[in-house]
Amino acid sequence: TAxxxxxxxxxxxxxxxxRLVCRKRMSARHTDLFFDxxxxxxxxxxxxxxxxxxxxxxQLFQYNAIGEELLLAVDMRLGYEEMRTARLVGMVFVxxxxxGVPVSVxxxxxxxxxxxxxxxxxxxxxxxxxxxxxxxRYARRYGMFYSKYRSACWWxxxxxxxxxxLLTAVLVFIATGSVLxxxxxxxxxxxxxxxxxxxxxxxxxxxxxxxxxSQLCTLLTLIASLGF
Length: 228
Hints:
Keywords: Membrane, Transmembrane, Transmembrane helix. It comes from Prymnesium polylepis. The chain is mainly alpha-helical. It is 71% helix and 4% strand. It has helices spanning 2-24, 28-58, 84-98, 100-113, 115-123, 129-142, 156-168, 179-199, 205-225; strands at 63-66, 69-72. The chain has a two-stranded antiparallel sheet. The longest helix is centred in the first third of the chain and has 31 residues, at 28-58.
């Protein structure tokens, strides 16, 4: 709750500040710049908080059975049934945030760099000044989602978000601490590693190497945990 409140407060403060400052002091160009970077900052905060907030939300649905009593796994002082209202709110948050963020990123990417956008660009013999400026502003707001990837891999950020969600949040539902949980984590990591090697999504080969190395380390860590 505190994290969500902080996130919402940050976005509201940014929005109010943007409107007040832009209305009184800035030219039209500087207003656009300030507004675009405000959106960028808000999106960045959401992006950074996404894995941890998703994991915390899913903790509302985990429980341990002690005899006939069900207790919330994250806090054994709380009964699972006592948190029914919190779980209802959590379901809304799962739909609006946990699922909404990847869907929103997909829509942004499809609009900015998807096949329909590339097809439209190839059909235009000359880009208008308005179109160029619109593309520039879109890149300032959401460029971090697609500028580092090859055009054929415009969707990769959504894939990476889902990978993080599976490893940090969804995986905890699979018999916590069991061998099965480790094997599922290994499968997810192996699949992600194979996808990265196959598509080599980054524009820079150094980033491809870094991505493969980091995912290989994750995979080897999970494999090593089978021995303990």
